[in-house]
Amino acid sequence: MKELKFNAGAQKHVFQPDGKLAVLTTTGGRTVKGSWRSEAQGTEIKENVLRYDIDGKAQAPLAVRYGFNEFNQLTATIPAAANGGADSETCVFLGQIVIDDAHDLVYSTLTPDGNLGALKITVYGDLHFSADSNNLVIEMKDGSHAEIKGEKGLTGVAMLKAEKNLVQEFKADDLLRFIAFTRNDLSTSAVRVPKKAQIEFVGKWDVNPDSGQLVFQSRVTGDLTKPDVSIGFAGSVKAVSAGFAYFADKDGTQLAFNIKGQHRWNSTTAKWELSLGHSQRKFEATFEGQIQKTTADGQMFVLAGKMTLLHEQGKSTAIDLNIQGSYQFNKNNKLNFVVSVQTSDGQLTYDLMVEGQFTFKSGTLSFRVRLNDKATGGAKATIELAFKGNQASLIKNLSLVLDIAPDKVKLSFEFELRMRFVDGVLVKDPPKKIAA
Length: 436
Prior knowledge:
Radius of gyration: 30 Å
Structural class: mainly beta
Low-confidence stretches: none
Largest sheet: 8 strands, mixed
C-alpha cells in the first residue's frame, strides 16, 4: 500500500505520498483538503507524529509508528489507539534514506517512475549500530525501533567505513560512512531499483566511559541549536597495528572496520598514549602483557596483552592489544620499535617509543623493554640484539649503543645503559659497569 489511511470518525483521511491530505467520501471519491508533514518546526517537539491541516485549519497531531521493510523502504502505521481501535494498514513509501545536516534520519520519497518526490519524511530517535549484524538502528521514544540493513561485506556484517573528513566546512577530522541501499519497485523497471542511502556522519571517535563501548560523536560545527549526536556500537574494539579494529560481535570474531590510530609509550608518565581516529582522541593507558620476537633469528616482534584506557572521570575500559612490527638500529644510534601498516593510502609507519635497558653481559647484547609503570623485567620482555659468537654483529650494535667507533669497543666491558624518550626525544643515560 503506497498511501497511509486514517480513520477520523465518520471520515477517512488519506496521507498521500505527494504531501497532500485527501478526504474520502462515502461514495469512494476523494477530495484534496490540505497538506501534511512529519518534520517539527520552530518550537514544536521533535516526535514521530503527523501534522496536517484541513481547509487551512490545523488538526491535532497524529501519532505514527515507523519501520523499515526487507528492502529498506520506510513503512508507516497509525497505531490502534489513534485509529479507532485497530492499527491502520501499513503504508510502504518509495524513497531513499538520507541523514540531513541536523543529523536527523530523513526519507526522501520517489514518484512511481523513480524521480525525486516533493515529500521528505523525518524520523526522530536515537541511533546506534546493532551487535552481530552491524545494522543501523533508530530507537523511538515510544520504545519501538526501526532497523536499516547495511550491505554485507566479506565478514558477513554490514559495511561501515571510518575515513578522514575532507570537507572543510565541518571542523572535524573523522567521517563515518554506512553503506546501505533502498530497493524500490518502480513503474519503469521489471526489477527493483536500488537507491544508495546517503548516511554519513562527521565528528570524532571516542570510548564511552560507562559502557566501555565505541561511540562516534557527531555534530554540526558552529550551530549551537543542533546538539551532538552520540552513535553507539554494541560490539567490541581491539587495539591493533593499524590503530583500532571494531568487531560487530562481543567475542571479537566478525571484523567490521578499522580506525586509524597509534600506540606510543610515554616515559615521562610511565603510561601508554593511544590516539584514536584522524581527530586523534587521546587516551592514557596502562598495559599488562608481553613483547616477544616472532622468530629466533629475525627482528620481528609482537606486543600483545591488555590495555586499560584511563578516562577523565576516573573510570577505565579494558581492551585487547595485539600489534606487530620490527626493531632495528638506525643511523642516529637509536633502537626503533617500529609498527608498519599497509593502508589504502600507502605505508604507515610509527615508532612505539618504548624505553628500556641495554645490557651487555657474557658476550650478549640485550634490551629489556619497559611495558608498564612497574620495574622492567621478565624474560619474555627482553629482546636479544646480538648473539655470543657473532662478533661482527655484536661490535656493530655495541658501537651504536655507546656512540663510539667500532675499533674502540672492548668486548671485556660489561655494562647496563638506559634508553628513554622525553617529550619524544631520545635520551640515553651514561653506561654503568656491571659488578663482577
